[in-house]
Amino acid sequence: SPLKMVNAAYYHLFHSSPILPVYTVDNIKLLPHFINGSALSNIDTINTFTKGNMRLQISDNGIHIQPSIGNAKLHSVFPQELGLWKGVQVYLQSKPETSLSSVRANDILPYQSVWQEIESDFFNTKKTPVFVANKNRKQHRIEDTVRITFTGQDPNDKNKYYCQIEDETGGEGFIYVKDDIVSYSVDTSLRHFYDSDGSRYVFEAKIIEKEDDLFHFSMSEELKDYCSDDFYTYDEDIICSVGGAPNGLGMSPAVSNEGLSVSLRNAGDFPGITHYDTVRCRLIGSGTGTFHISCDIIELVEYDFDLSTAFKTLMKNCSVGQIPEAITDQEDEQILDSDKLIDEGYGTAEDDNAAILSAAQKHEDQLHGDYLKSTVSFTVTYIAHMLAIVAAVIALLKLKKRRLKTATVFAVIAVVCGAASLIASVVFGSVHSFAFAAAVFTAVGVCLTAKPEQAQV
User: Fold this and answer.
1) How far is CA 148 from the centre of its chain?
2) Number of Cβ within a 10 Å radius of residue 153
3) Intra-chain end-to-end CA distance of the chain, in Å
4) Rounded distance, CA 72 to CA 70, Å?
């Protein structure tokens, strides 16, 4: 509802623990007056919203609207003497043509002119921005550790995600799940980097290189430090999914139920252990290379291990904060596209019992439909297949006895049955066209054999 939307906007933009106003949609115009007259303390949260050429940033420095790209020196629009609420300020890449420093009282024309410049600068898509390099402006560099959030998934590479830096300097870049975050392969979507309420998880990452105007981030070192710091105790049971058969040293890779990459040192002591086996093990110490920890197997166990849920748990645990923000339509569409099987077939870890049962029922209905389809395919295809063969054999026998009219009738029956077999196999399953080919050749043979006056009935 509009009321909930305004409440959510007020809550997420201005303060982490605001006093929400009492109002209805009918008197929503009073909201600005309430906000301006409220005795809220300074903003104690950081939010960044980017759309097109505009970035809205809310922090303890104020509420700022500025260009989202470019390295130009920014020019403030409103003089500090105006004392705008919570330090509201707009920054443009060029100095405004209209000055607000000496505006006469009750003269709104200069402000209207300035707002026209602002709208043109941010929303005129035909305007080509001119960027002026500023060597004094602070820039993030390679090897810097920054805080990032995930904003999108590459449609051509599901392993690649786009991120933005959550600080005043800002910046955008990308990261790969496999290699830059964990060493194992896992199917992911934006859901893994968002909380159930739509908040974006904040992660610490290192800038490892720069490609064009995008930073390349890595979280592997930060994750290893986090996982090696007493994540498990030495007397704690750790459930792991084995990633493969033991190597020449008797070691196997694995993933723990909390998403950690594990080296199983004594996997070679368990004959036949292989990929997807689940084991109960104990911590030995920190891992080497890309492994977070090393463990020894205690025993093989039966456990319903889900790698996607394990990775989601890891992302939630290692996040250093959250930025409240509703998932956009574009992000929601990406989640549905890349996570459709989880959403509609099996439910998610955040669903309640009713939702999980509903998802299971949908999956069962789909399986029932597939089973019915396979049954119809098998029945129609093979019955028609056999009838076509029988009819073709009879037609050949009649043809041998020079009973052309009777042979033609059975040849037609063979063609019809063969066609039914072919259509059923194309619609419901794979193509089985041997009977149809036999029937066609039989019909051709009948048509090319003896003349009608030489045949017997």
Assistant:
1) 17
2) 22
3) 82
4) 6
**Paired strand residues for 261:** 255
Query: For residue 451, with 0-12 CB atoms within 10 Å meaning exposed, 13-18 middle and 19 or more buried, which class applies?
Result: exposed
What token pair was written down for 81? Answer: 């003497």
Compute the distance between CA of residue 195 and CA of residue 299 in angstroms, rounded to an integer: 34
Distances (CA, A) of 84 to 10, 81, 103, 329: 17, 8, 15, 32
Distance (Å, whole) CA 3 – CA 358: 30
Closest CA to 195 of 78, 61, 349: 349
| 218 beta partners | 206
Residue 277 · residue 240 · CB < 8 Å: no
Query: What pLDDT score does 378 carry?
Result: 66
Exposure b/e, 172-208, CB count within 10 A at least 16 = b: bbbbebeebbbbbebebbbbbbbbeebbbbbbbbbbb
* Structure confidence by residue, pLDDT tens digits, 42-53: 676 777 777 777
Determine the Cα–Cα distance for residues 328 and 332; give it in Å rounded to an integer.
6
Tokens of 365: 């209905």
pTM over 0.70: no
Strands (E), 190-251: 200-211, 214-218, 238-242
Place of tokens 């064009």: 212
CA torsion angle for 436, 438, 440, 444 (degrees, to 10)?
180
Q: Kindly state the tokens that stand for 439.
A: 């029937």
Residue identified by tokens 């994750």 is 223
Q: Specify which residues 395 forms β-bridges with.
A: none
pLDDT value of residue 186: 94
pLDDT digits (tens, 9 = 90+) for 66-85: 887 655 577 888 887 777 77
